[in-house]
Specification:
This protein has 58 residues and is mainly alpha-helical. The protein has a domain at 15-52. It contains 3 helices and no strands. It has helices at 2-5, 16-28, 33-54. Helix 2 (16-28) packs across helix 3 (33-54). The relative contact order is 0.09.
Length: 58
C-alpha cells in the first residue's frame, strides 16, 4: 500500500530561463521549486477537469 501513496519521481528538463522564473515565483509563494511545479501542475489538471465537465457533448 505504501508504494501506491509514494510520490512518483519524474525527470524534468527546463530551460535556465524557465527555471529561474519558477524559482522566483516559488520564493514569492514560500514554496520549493519542486513544490511550485507540483502546485502548478495540480492547478492545470483541476482546470482541465473543470473544463471537461462544462463542455457540451457534440
Amino acid at each position: 500500500m505504501e508504494s501506491e501513496k509514494a510520490k512518483k519521481q519524474v525527470p524534468l528538463r527546463l530551460s535556465p530561463q524557465l527555471y529561474a522564473e519558477i524559482a522566483r515565483w516559488a520564493e514569492d509563494d514560500f514554496r520549493s521549486v519542486n513544490g511550485q511545479i507540483e502546485y502548478l501542475l495540480t492547478q492545470a489538471v483541476n482546470k482541465r477537469k473543470k473544463g471537461e465537465k462544462t463542455k457540451e457533448d457534440p
